[in-house]
Amino acid sequence: MTTAQSPIARQPEQLDYASPTQFRFGIHQLPKVEFNTVSANLPGISVDTSAMATPFKDIPIMGEKATFENLSLSFIVDEYLENYISLHNWMTGISFPQSRSQFSTFRDTTSNTPAASRTETATDVIGQAIPDRSMYSDAFLMILSNKNNPIVEVNFLNIFPISLSALDFTQAATDVDYLTASAEFSYQLYEINTL
To answer: Per the domain annotation, does 189 fall within a domain?
Structure first.
């Protein structure tokens, strides 16, 4: 049985549609990527389900764990590859493929995110652990109206890169096509705020 609702109550208040070109993306760790961003997505979210067993058909019931899809980003690479290199350095800082010093160098000097420092008065032989806050960053996706006014802000918490695409150079290009790179990020969660 449905409840009756007046036709006036069903009318939308906003008659404009969202435009895929009206956005701004920024990430604190990668300031040179913001200006050159050509695409970003608002990742999907899913919730797991459970099943209650019955002799006939299992009955689905809601789960308790949310799973967020990865954040995808594409950007135009600048002539000196600064934005590409900054993302590459972040990934090698996290994964340190050559030596452990890559991790500490990125954490202590290269990272744009402030880090906690080791205390001078460590009393044990090993010393105190340093928080890894500088290995993460926060990011935002600002959705703009058709008049370029911010209307929705999506904040990503504790974001870090998990993949960076290759750059394909070729002499066979007949027209100037600027290099673009794509990256995937994982994060703790995102929050959507209406402005």
So the answer is: yes
Mean pLDDT of 165-176: 89
Domain count, the chain: 1
Range of the domain at 30: 23-43+70-114+131-194
Contacts of 109-116 with C-beta under 8 Å, sequence gap 24+, read 111/29, 111/135, 112/28, 112/29, 112/30, 112/31, 112/137, 113/28, 113/29, 113/137
CATH number at residue 185: 2.30.110
Secondary structure (3-state) at 133: helix
The four Cα atoms 45, 90, 133, 163 give a dihedral, to 10 degrees, of 20
Give pLDDT tens digits for 92-104: 888 877 777 776 7
Which residue shows structure tokens 């160098």? 105
Q: Which residue has tokens 């970003």?
A: 40
Strands (E), the chain: 23-27, 37-40, 45-52, 59-68, 71-76, 137-144, 150-164, 180-186, 189-194
Taking the whole predicted model, whether its pTM rises above 0.85 is answered as no
Instruction: Encode 83-106: b = buried (16+ Cβ within 10 Å), e = exposed.
Output: bbebbebbbbbbeeeeeeebbebb
